[in-house]
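Appendix B. Raw example, untouched.
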Amino acid sequence: MNNFEKKKKNQPKRMAIFASGSGSNAENIARYFKERSSAIISLILTNKSDAFVIQRANSLKIPVIIFNRDDFYNTSKVLHILIENKIDFIVLAGFLWLIPGNITRTFNNKIVNIHPALLPEFGGKGMFGDHVHKKVIEAGKTESGITIHYVNEKYDEGNIIFQAKCEVTKSDTPESLANKVHQLEYENYPKIIETLL
């Protein structure tokens, strides 16, 4: 390994986070990596101009890119933004759109997502947030949890990287189960991302 390669290997990875909503996971990840030299959060991208994640990004001084469905699916605009910003790794944190092929192919095995249940159960289109927790409770499951997985061109079907479990009790509601799952997300997602880098 020459000096240039050594230097590049030791440089922090440039990460982009995609989020569609409140952005609590995005903020948790950004704060985690602020304390470390392994990665910097270069961009936060969102498909919603009113998403609360934008305020979180502004307070963390992370640049935000807002894009629409046409930008994402019918042009290479978002892909070009990622390439121009020399992004090495992409993290989905509550991002609800399917990632198009031009991005999944360019960033093969470099995009990860977190799902609020134990895949392969309770995954697929429309399975996010409280919808998932409601289905888990209705199915009478005694445990739920999180699944961190690679992203491909199908919802929740990429290879599983990590799972963590929590108990589902008879008194659980979608809200109380969501709280347990959020704790697992905050505790594990940044650490697993760091090991993947």
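End of appendix B.
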